[in-house]
């Protein structure tokens, strides 16, 4: 904190002054000494020797200038970064003090008891871990900055030592590595990248690196992974193929290496992934809106595509373009990886056959260790991998399974892996899967309909003859990344994010959801209006094991479309119940316009009860999302007009009937063990076991009060419906469901002071429409 870093700039000025002095000496030497060998009067062997020696001497004067300038630049670079780090440290200390902490000169953080509230003092006395919960975040923050100072100091030391090393091989350089450095660099990060690449190259070659070198790799990635110059220099020095080899080496050591170094190699993997994200970063492209405000173009839009195309032709894009081209070659080449080699069956390995992995598989495995990738880079890599698999349908196939806690870390299906990465960046997922992006593309249709998702190799060997099998095996995590990407793309949030308030969606989000439903149900993005339409089978498709990983993310996504699905089920939307071939595009108020049958079949498929389970959380989620939205309408709209209330009640009853009937088609648990324990638990936001449903959208207190009905009442209604669709007993009454519907309206009426006669009319309308909704579900789910 008290260090005088001004000495660095003083020293830098002296080195720059020295470069000027060397330039003067070089000029004098050129004019008074070297000039002698250039005239016509001195000839013969001695003249030739003198010419060579004098040229070498002049070269050293030139190299000395370069080295002196570079040394000055390194010192100024060091000064700039030390000052920035000290500012960060000062800011962290001041923030800690402002938050009620004391910070010692050694960086120790303690609680300032004079600033504690009475509640905090009480917690301090009774909660053992309370003090640490207050101080630890500040301690960690200060420690990280102090470590960054130490890391930078080590980088400066490395650069100042490296700048003095003579480069060999230049014309007129006759000192064989003992003279001045004619290729001296004035950037600390470039020397760090060079040294790190040297260690990585030796590791790739099978050399054992020392603990000090391993620690240096950790330090350099920790200090520089977010630095563009370092990242691009390091990756360029190694090249795509060697980066993949380096990544595989880290995978080997972090998963099957010595226990004492596994964590260190995991850290290296994260550092390398961050380095890749930094090096391939594509800048944000902006435009001015009508008010003169700067707005970013979203990935996939026409404005973005034009801006990216223009940027691609600039020098700033040189690394990105060359790296992507290099990956196209390295990504389809084969590499050794212990995790893959160990999975070769004995009846295959006995014939001397091994297996290697593709570069893209290793690349995506590495990328999964990091974050912050540009949407453009994710999309480009995904496109390049799909192009590669179209040329070779077996390109990703490997013996063995790469799934679950122990083996799922390896991205044997790199396309699914990159889609999983997109799910952490909604802009990337939406821009990539939107069929209107890039001037129109078929990515969504290819992924949902045409792509072969089988990555398990089943061929056998008889000596040197490979016997191909037609048997398909799908891993347990098949399509997991696709499901997550679809959720992010259609919700506009990260996959798995908590629910937000009910609302509409962007045009791209609604378009992707609309086409996803149609492709799954009808096999055509335009539904029944498409040229390749087939009978609706979305429920059967989503019930199958190979589509199981689409259920949870799509259910969370579809729950956010409750305003749309309610309109579709009741037919009050612009496309009525038959649907329209496209979404209704209206800016941020866009809607899906699928057919009612499709919506109900998709809901049924998403709600399928997982193997070994006794309940469907997805059904709970979808059911409550629809009920929640309808209740919010009842609780916030003006129903002084009795006719308007009857219309709304009719729609509530119809949706309730359809969804209750849909739930009755599920093999849900229906015993007293659930209902007897659920009477005091709120309906909305919980599944039948009493656990909170996090993805459900939320709304105001008025609607919540109406929905505060016991779970046992709702569960009884659904349980009473079970088996009716399967047995074709649609004419059977469901007294429990009708009682629950009446109770729902009575609670709403009491809360909103609705007179009994008006309420009775509303209940009657809802009851009649309930039967209509049941019939709609029967028609959608029971195929002729």
UniProtKB/TrEMBL annotation:
UniProt name for this protein: AG2 protein
Organism: Streptomyces paludis
